[in-house]
Amino acid sequence: MRLDQLPHNEIQKLVNTGAPVFVCVNPVEFHGPHLSLATDSLVSFGMARRLYESLVKQNPEWPYLEWSSIELGVEPTPGLGTTKTSFFKLKYVIHEAAKALAAVGVKRVIWVSFHGAPAHNTAIQLGIDYLHKRGIPSMNIMNSVLDSMLYFKESEYEGAFTHIEDQVTAQRLLSNMTSDLHGGFFETSMAIHYAPESVTKDLSEIPDCPKFIVWPIFIVAMKFARFFKMHRFERELWFGSQAIAWSKIKPFPGYTGAPRYANAESGKFFAEKLNHHFVELYHSVFVEKKKARRPMLEWSVYISSVLFG
């Protein structure tokens, strides 16, 4: 139920139940020829509903509450139909949304995005920080998705690849999961699960993304990070370096990996595994009152702001 479409006295009654309010923040973005421009939004709405289904089991009195979705995104993938937004514009919009949420008396906020750009999630983090200062806990579930990629365990996700007949291909896709950044096997499978009508009917026609090679300077930087035992920094460098290398492919495909192998069964496995992590994050933030991990590569956003404005 959309809170912003209800009378104010009804909003007060609903937020007083303590139910979390879901706020989706996603770009209009090219994901290749096989996915829609609204892929991130469609997957986000699906993830929000699935998380609510898990939470309402322990809180049956909670209604499903949504705030007006924010269809903006920083650093979207270039391509036909992509709409760009600056970090500063999204930061302002997030701040205003957080102010509005606090003003109407929400008790908990869950920001939902499926866009992994560091600046995008850093802008959302500013909304989390604003609410935290006012005693309102909130979290961004995309940070949990990115942490799953950053500390990827093949054994945890093997079940998503059992539906691929050729075991050599299945193992290759599993091994390359940390490079499957956008519109590939992972995201396409998630889209098939949550919004099948948004995926092209014949994925077999979609060629694999060409291989990309991480620049040597990043390899050197990662070695320094490893030497000084800066393990998370090393992993973030690896993740960011792959995104940069992929963006330099000519001609640019707009997606990674091998989406032609995507399927509903794998999508369901990914969705359920991620939802398990979301429930754990919810418990940590809202029950144990712990601070969630901040966005991946947050530091790079501020360095870029200083250097490039």
Structural summary, described in words:
- The chain has 309 residues and is mostly helical.
- The protein contains twelve helices and four strands; from the N terminus they run αβαβαβαβαααααααα.
- α2 (39-55) crosses α11 (264-287).
- The protein has a four-stranded parallel β-sheet, sandwiched between helices.
- β1 (21-24), α2 (39-55) and β2 (65-66) form a beta-alpha-beta unit.
- The mean pLDDT is 96.
- The chain starts with 7 loop residues before the first helix and ends with a helix.
- The longest helix has 24 residues, at 264-287.
- The protein folds into two domains: 3-148 and 268-308, Rossmann fold (3-Layer(aba) Sandwich); 165-267, no CATH class.
- The radius of gyration is 19 Å and the shape is globular.
